[in-house]
Amino acid sequence: MVSAVLGTEEQNQQPGELEPVQRKSTAAIVADQLRAAIMYGSLPPGSQLGEAELAQRLGVSRGPLREAMQRLVAEGLLRSEPHRGLFVMDLDTDDVADIYLARLAVERAACEQIVRHHRVEAVAELTAAQSRMVAAAGKGDAIELADADQEFHETLVRVSGSARLQRMAQTLLVEKRMCLTALQDKYHADIQALVDEHRGLVDAIEAGDEALLLSRLEGHMNDALDRLNGSLAE
């Protein structure tokens, strides 16, 4: 009954009609900035977060900063050490394997929902995301390519329609990017293979072939994990 009512309201909404603006709290904005700093290595693994320094750099009071940092503790991106403070998480080979185990579970569930309920939307959005990967690969820009790769997988989970899968994927993708940033001098991917693998995922979705999609997703995750493990071993 509720879904029927919601559906009616959506149908009655006219294009261009004003809607309430969703505004983020200061703590949420600060959390986004800290998350990005961790992802891109400005706050590297193992580094300690100085509350006074960060508050000054961000131009915020300590209250929202503390709330933001506790969010990242809950996400597993920061760790709290009694009498010492907060530190960015370190990631070892076991952590990397666990990240990809969890990523596969989350993105597998997202793919199942996409094939069954959101194929048209997914093909359109993922094709655009994969095109940005192609453009970045053509320029030989490793950072832009990593950004486009990240966007592809964020889009994959988002178009599944599951807010909970999105929340789980957010931290996992930041952790994955932490690994790539820390290993940027050692990590060497076959760029064309990477681009082709993502195109293969889109093609499987377009074909509506769930088994093929899940097989390609698993292969893609395993290849990425093998490359990361090889870089960690060097």
From TrEMBL:
- The HTH gntR-type domain is annotated at 24-91
Instruction: Give the matching SUPFAM superfamilies.
Output: GntR ligand-binding domain-like (SSF48008), Winged helix' DNA-binding domain (SSF46785)
Q: Which UniProt keyword terms apply here? A: DNA-binding, Transcription, Transcription regulation
PROSITE patterns the record matches: HTH_GNTR (PS50949)
Would I find Transcription regulation among this entry's keywords?
yes
What Gene3D superfamilies does this protein map onto?
GntR ligand-binding domain-like, Winged helix-like DNA-binding domain superfamily/Winged helix DNA-binding domain
Pfam families for this protein: FCD, GntR
Region annotated Disordered sits at 1-24
Please give the name of this protein. Answer: GntR family transcriptional regulator
Biological source species: Saccharopolyspora ipomoeae
